[in-house]
Amino acid sequence: MSLTDIAVAHRGGAGLAPENTLAAFEMSHALGLRLLETDVQVTKDGVALAFHDATLARTAGIDARVRDLTWEELRAVRVGGEPIQRLDTLLDAFPDASFLIDLKTVRAAAPL
């Protein structure tokens, strides 16, 4: 098998459900995918999130940067009706999966 034969659930399975949400990861996992890709942004208080963009504008319609908000402030934000996920929650939810993690900022290295 070569790397071109491996299916990857990009952004957790964007296209199946809102990107980088638990719903997307669950649907990809249910389809048998065990290589899950996600992006990581970090909150003001150092929590690693499965989130692609630096801002909430495109996915949540909010004019704010992830790095300027705490996890407590972000936990109520929805992406296509789904909550933003902490990276640790996703890693715990899929112990039989491998993750490709795209750090979107240098600040994401320490919490990771």
List key phrases describing it.
112 residues, alpha+beta, 4-stranded mixed beta sheet, two-stranded antiparallel sheet, 4 helices, globular
Textual characterization of the structure:
The structure is a single chain. The chain is an alpha+beta fold and 112 residues long. It has helices at residues 22-30, 57-60, 71-74, 87-93, and strands at 35-42, 48-50, 78-79, 82-83, 85-86, 98-103. The protein is globular, with a radius of gyration of 14 Å. The chain starts with 21 loop residues before the first helix and ends in a 9-residue tail after the last strand.
What's the quick description here?
With 112 residues, the protein is α+β, with helices and mostly antiparallel strands. It has helices spanning 22-30, 57-60, 71-74, 87-93, and strands at 35-42, 48-50, 78-79, 82-83, 85-86, 98-103.
Given as residue ranges, the uncertain stretches (5+ residues, pLDDT < 50) are: none
Summed up, the helix count is 4
Q: Rough shape?
A: globular
Main pleated-sheet profile:
4 strands, mixed
**Helix proportion range:** 10-25%
Termini separation comes to 30 Å
Q: For the CA atoms, what is the radius of gyration? A: 14 Å
What's the helix-strand series?
A: HEEHHEEEHE
Number of strands: 6
What's the overall average pLDDT, rounded? 94
Strand content is 15-25%
